[in-house]
Design brief:
Layout: E1 5-10, H1 14-24, E2 29-34, H2 45-55, E3 62-66, H3 75-83, E4 86-87, H4 93-98, H5 100-109, E5 113-117, H6 118-122, H7 124-129, H8 141-145, E6 150-155, H9 160-173, E7 176-181, H10 187-200
Parallel strand pairs: 1-2, 1-3, 3-4, 5-6, 6-7
Length: 201
């Protein structure tokens, strides 16, 4: 079957998106991921998405971009408007997993929150510890995380090992720990709506 539709995604969402495609038998959907390192440099997300969509122009009939705003302060929306593509709702992937209202409530409750998902727990060393130099200079922890009060782990799976690892991440950062089981949150219904409408079209 011809791949008529594309989900261009943040690499942090790859596992969940590929599972959705397989579970639903979406043979018309391609999933392509941009480097997860963009998560640490939000100003680079919109240019990276723009460049890839230009390269792919004309190859797909329908394109969905699996990023929220993710710190681009509207730059990603301007890119997507030019390409006629849509994206995930909300300000961040954490809001997509938690639900938009729940995300707002958590932020209002404690702005000094460091969020983890399954992906970020699995790759905590390479995405948090090493880039911040905490492996080489653990004394930097208080300087970097001094204004944070808690870690909230938004888990996609019911994995006791990941939960234990998430607790260990919070201890390493010297922060209180909370766990909220979100599953895929808004990711599944939003991408499902795109996939089904693309198939009908």
């Amino acid at each position: 079957m011809k791949k008529t539709s594309l989900v261009l995604a943040c690499g942090a969402l790859a596992r969940e998106l590929l599972a959705l495609v397989e579970a639903n038998g979406w043979e018309h959907i391609d999933v392509e991921c941009l480097p997860v390192a963009l998560h640490a440099t939000p100003r680079k997300i919109a240019p990276a998405v723009d460049a890839r969509l230009k390269e792919l122009a004309g190859r797909y009939d329908h394109v969905f971009v699996a990023y929220a705003d993710c710190g681009t302060t509207g730059a990603l929306d301007r890119v997507l408007e030019r390409h006629g593509a849509e994206r995930l709702p909300g300000t961040h992937c954490f809001a997509v997993y938690a639900g938009l209202d729940e995300w707002d409530a958590m932020q209002a409750d404690e702005a000094g929150t460091f969020y983890l998902t399954d992906f970020f727990v699995r790759h905590f060393e390479s995405l948090v510890v090493e880039p911040l130099g905490l492996d080489r200079h653990p004394e930097l922890r208080d300087a970097v995380f001094g204004n944070y009060r808690r870690v909230v782990y938004l888990s996609q799976t019911n994995d006791p090992g990941l939960l234990a690892d998430a607790r260990a991440c919070a201890r390493r950062l010297g922060l209180a720990f909370e766990h909220r089981r979100t599953g895929n949150g808004l990711l599944a219904p939003v991408v499902t709506r795109f996939a089904e409408s693309a198939r009908v079209a």
